[in-house]
Amino acid sequence: MNHTSYFQNKVIWITGASSGIGEELALQLARAGAKLILSARNEEKLHDLQEKLENHNQHRVVPLDLANLSNLSEISSEILGIYQRIDILINNGGVSQRASANETSMEVNRQLMEVNFFGNIALAKAVLPIFRAQQSGQFLVVSSIAGKFGFHLRSIYSASKAALVGYYESLAMEEAPNGIKVTLAYPGKINTPISKSALTASGQAHGAMDRNQATGMPVEECVQQMLEAMAKGKREVLIGGKELLAVYMKRFLPRLFWKIIPKQSAT
Length: 267
Description:
Distance between the termini: 38 Å
CATH architecture: 3-Layer(aba) Sandwich
Strand order of the largest sheet: 3-2-1-4-5-6-9
Strand content: 5-15%
Helix content: 40-55%
């Protein structure tokens, strides 16, 4: 199947659309003929992105702060009013971490869980009744290779990404009879600016581009693999380079995993 035709005319809501994977998803999906709802905190960046998209008039900007979703039901009703349906929710918005478990304050732990987990599932809860009424719908949930195993300076980030897996695997089983599909994506090292906005122990932005990100897979290729996995209805997709071997190593050669992984650079 040509995966681009799969997305033609579908109404797709993307969170974290202002940069990185979210921005590239918007660019590729617009080219595939989808109608997009672009969400993130930075409204100005979203409008700049909308102007760059093919058929920019058929897309909408809906600013959203995953840490404060008090108006979420109004937003989903508004989207439904414009498009009459929502076909796909891409839960991509999130924030990373660059601090040890010992240094990270409970306030920062809660902040990360609020954005990466509770904000994420709140969106799922908002669109689920719409998907059920339609008897169709699809979630793309962007977890991380850190959702498969813990790593230096990622304790709460890793926990939040693993929590998404448990939640959406359960939801996928429950909602399959209602025509609802879930694809979980596990990106490894991808060339995006995610490390710049990662939180330090005090909750400040890390502000630096990590070597692991700078030398990672091009974001265009990462997004292409995500979209192909969705079009094929895959339950999960691992995306990245040789770092993905660690996932299989942990499963099949755990003693070797625990020897090698702690020696890898955290940045």
